[in-house]
Amino acid sequence: MPPPLVLVVEDDAVMRESCQQTLERSGWRVVTAGDGFSALKALRLRDPDLVVLDLKMPGMDGVDFLQHVRTDRPQLDVIVITAYSSVGSAVECMRLGAYDYLPKPFDPDALRLAVGR
What we know:
Layout: E1 5-9, H1 13-25, E2 29-33, H2 36-46, E3 50-54, H3 62-72, E4 77-82, H4 87-95, E5 100-103, H5 108-116
Parallel strand pairs: 1-2, 1-3, 3-4, 4-5
Helix pairs in contact: 2-3
């Protein structure tokens, strides 16, 4: 059985690559998207087991993407990552069904731990 597939949705290329490398080194398969619209396409085509989602992105932001996920794939776990963390955004994401919420910058171990759960 192949390892779980993680969809990393992050508009910052350096952060996206960093997340991808961290997770791949830990044995997960990773597919990436640079925006919410590409992520919706990847969600349909690749059927990931988990999503790591940036909250602030141009076009479709993380909250909009999370709402789509809850409608189309309510069982899919989503971990939100953001450089703009606040109690309000954390509460909103958790209300929408986010599994976890990591403020940037985060330790790669924190990402591995969240994804491993």
